Amino acid sequence: MPMPALDIEKIKKEIIDSQLWRSVFRGGLWKDTPRDRAGHIIGNVWLHLHPVKVRPRALKWAYSWGMGGISFALYLLLTITGVVLMFYYRPTIGLAYRDIKDLEFAVTLGMFLRNAHRWAAQAMVVAVIAHMVRVFLTGAYKKPREFNWGIGVLLLTLTLFLSFTGYLLPWDQLAIWAVTVGTNMAGATPVLGNEGPLGSLVGMRINNDVRFTLLGGTMVGENTLLRFYVMHCVAVPLVVGILLILHFWRIRKDSFSAAPYEANEEKIDVWPHLVKREYIGAAGTTIFIMIWSILQNAPLEAIANPNVTTNPSKAPWYFVGLQELLVYFDPWIAGVVMPGLIIVGLIAIPYIDTNPKGVGYYAWKERPFANTLFMLGVVMWFALIYIGYALRGPNYAWYWPWESWFMNKPAPPPTWSVFGPKGVGAYSMLIGIPLMGAIASAWMLLPKLIQKELDGKKTMGAFLGLLALWAGVGMAMGKMGAIQGGYLLFFVGASFYFGFVLPQRHIRTLDWPRYLVTMVLVVSTMSVLLKMCANLAFNIKYVLTIPAISMNI
Amino acid sequence: MSYRKAFIVSNALMLASFIWAFVKDFRAEWRPYQAKYYQMSADVLEKKAAAEKDEKKAAALKVEARKMRSSPMEIKQIIANDLGRFDRCVTCHVGMDEYTNPSLKNDFKENPYKSHPKIDEALVKAHPFTKFGCTSCHSGQGLATQVEPAHGWVKHWEKPMLKGAHIQGSCVKCHGDFENLKGAEIAAQGKKLFSKTGCQGCHAINGWGGVVSVELGDIADKPFERIAGYNFKNIVMDGKELKNEHHHNEWNLQNWILAHLVNDPAKVTPNDPFAHYNAEPIPPSGMPDFTQELSRADADAITAYLSGMTKEEVIPHRYHVSAPPAKEPALSGAAHGKFVFAKYGCQGCHGLDAKIGRRRFNAAGEKQAEYDEKMPEKEQLAQMNLGEEPTLPKLVGTYTHDELIHKIEMGVPASDAKKWSPKGPMPMVYMPAWKGKISKQELADLSTWLRSIAVKDESGF
Lengths: 553, 461
Prior knowledge:
The structure holds 2 protein chains of 2 kinds. Chain A is mainly α. Chain A folds into 2 domains: about 60-260 and about 280-295 and about 315-395, CATH 1.20.810.10; about 420-550, no CATH class. Chain A is about 60% helix and about 5% strand. Chain A contains 19 helices and 5 strands. In chain A, strands 3-4-5 form a 3-stranded mixed beta sheet. A two-stranded antiparallel sheet of chain A has the order 1-2. Chain A is globular. The model of chain A has no long low-confidence stretch (mean pLDDT about 90). Chain B folds into 3 domains: about 30-150, no CATH class; about 170-320, CATH 1.10.760; about 335-450, CATH 1.10.760.10. Helix content of chain B is about 40%, strand content about 0%. Chain B has helices spanning about 5-25, 30-50, 55-70, 120-125, 130, 135-140, 145-150, 170-175, 185-195, 230, 255-260, 265-270, 295-305, 335-345, 345-350, 375-385, 390-395, 400-410, 440-450; strands at about 80, 85, 235, 240. Chain B has a two-stranded antiparallel ribbon with strand order 1-2. The termini of chain B are far apart.
């Protein structure tokens, strides 16, 4: 008897039409019609945060870099690996380190899991920053997306905080000293920290200030580990999740992409055109993290010992740039004011950038000021991270990559302060405070007050000429070396160009409130360069110091 | 590449990398060792079965062999709760695992298969593995299941396995009476040498001894972080330089202690006598050069003794064996004075039997040339090295009995020293105040003895 022919189509139809299948998956047999595709997005709780249709320009990898999606893929990856790791980890100082060793040596795939979690966390920091850079460069934060950009900045901050809280959990030397460096900066918060300016005036002590709240003690210990664990595993992910929903929902409501409309543009279906791209991005990320985790083990040093400080002690890499600033600034500036200004400044950008051009496409020529200053900030952030991470050795001395850390380095030369108890002049502070105020205000106001647009090349040439003259005279008098002259030309020249010439040319016409906020951000960025110059070339520790209220600038 | 292809390729790659991760995890280092042990033991059992004439016994042996061959691959561990040890060493060293090898004996010669040596001796019998674990005596990283990490030959493991005689330091941890213990002879010899050489004159142990240099009661816990890397690379041992690599296999505490005994410590820790890197000059290690007095074996013995000096390890009190206080010989007068001199380690600085003072960096003395600022640094360093502690017989004759007692009681602060190079560092070594540490009677006898060995000039003084 011949075998009855198998009618696959019929079986398929019967399965799909069964009550069980119908109850789980809505919609009928897939016919690949626009209606089917729309139904796929609308009828699925996971996919319905997408719009049904999207403009083809928004899908280009070269436009979006896929970094937002990859950041979210990493967030999911971190959630999954993190939850599995929680089965093996107990947050007490007696057990935490041992549990990590167990993961490394005894748990099946334990090492792989830990590596994946660690590397995905590092990758997420990079991906989120890259996402921000892309959104900035394509002007996608402009009206009506200002608020969503702000949520994005908060998400970036929370990503860093998530990574930072996780850094402590292995409870090894790397962990406690990195967290000690990081949290000590909190102790320097103005008013709220015991070492910060004005802190002692309002009664801040080591055991009641903001650092104490963060650590649950006066030093990194058992309470800190528990606090960081709860923040890392429960509190912060919850907040991040809520903000993510808001972030995605806003993207959808704001028509998904800022890419401008073109004539005769026809929207295309999200299923499959966007979904397939998202899938490939997420899969590629997963593969990348998996292979990285197989080839490279996460670091684990000796068990934490509060009595033995590692030399050098470094913060997690994404905060090393701020740590590097500690060489030039007191902790309240490097650890609190600067990061605060960065966060507030980033959130403020959509509200102070009134340039209507460059929304949804790369437009360097149409937005020269915004792009230059933003990218300068990004480059400075990563340059400082590179210096702090790769070029700083024992005692935080400068070591080139080819130099052994066992080489002794001479102690840095003695430093001095310009205005302060031992500064220049008899009434140093009395001169210094108004003088610095005058210089700062003049700098802020001058670019707008000069009504006519200056010739950039001529102005820059004249200024550099003056600087060169100063350096030349200094060298001739034997008071300055060639290196000092070089520092002077580079740092002061750069500050003048980015802090004066560019604002004068481009934001002179801004209204006063927006202009002033922009200038505060610009001048603070330049002050970093200027202070580096003062320290490197002239060994100046503080420009102004008022010891009575721990106020050093 | 179309997205359809990319979809298939990426899925395949995800699956492949997961399998790769799993295979890598499955091929753990310990597996081949354990598998080979089961095989070798099964072979031995089968041979026995073949040689056995009694059929019943032969059958039983064969069953045992089959069981052995199909034993499950597993991480084995000894949990010694009292001592806080979780030792997975027996995962590879299966012959030392009581559950797999209840007799704890086998005929294998090679590590990691062989059984524990001297298994029948009292020393091993008194320390059952299930109670003490492995690392209580041997050190190393008990939690690890890979060769290098388990033996502690990796970065960031502070206590690698103790090698050779140094393991006797582990006896010292619990046994206060280790000097009379069979098996701890080398550590006992180390203690004797420590005292004979006068180390306690500068280094106190658990509060007993001088305060010139670091207390050694917890020296075995010294963190690597506290040993400066640039010092470690100066160590020459058995004719070769140690590796200049942080946390290398050779970078361990035993080598650091040895370095002070088989090298001139001033060369190991040269510091900064000419203030090249610091605001003030910092003298090299003040420890005298003992390379002439101590052989390599002597140095190893002292190292073994000091390897037991730990405070970090939590050892319950019931594990401790205390010793009665050592009896002192019944002596009196000058003979007792000579004994007191050695008892408090005066010879550490003033030489055995007070014969000749040891090095005191940058102290002005008779052997040195006139200080000259223009002298090259190398020669200046050699001159500074010629500074000496007082050679007592030449000195004590100028004191009366009471003056001498007073001098020993009060000590001599470092700042009293006359420097050879005024720009050089303050001499590190000084005479501590012994008041309250040396009893009145001991002091009197010490003074009597010292005055009896004073060099007398022609007039009799």
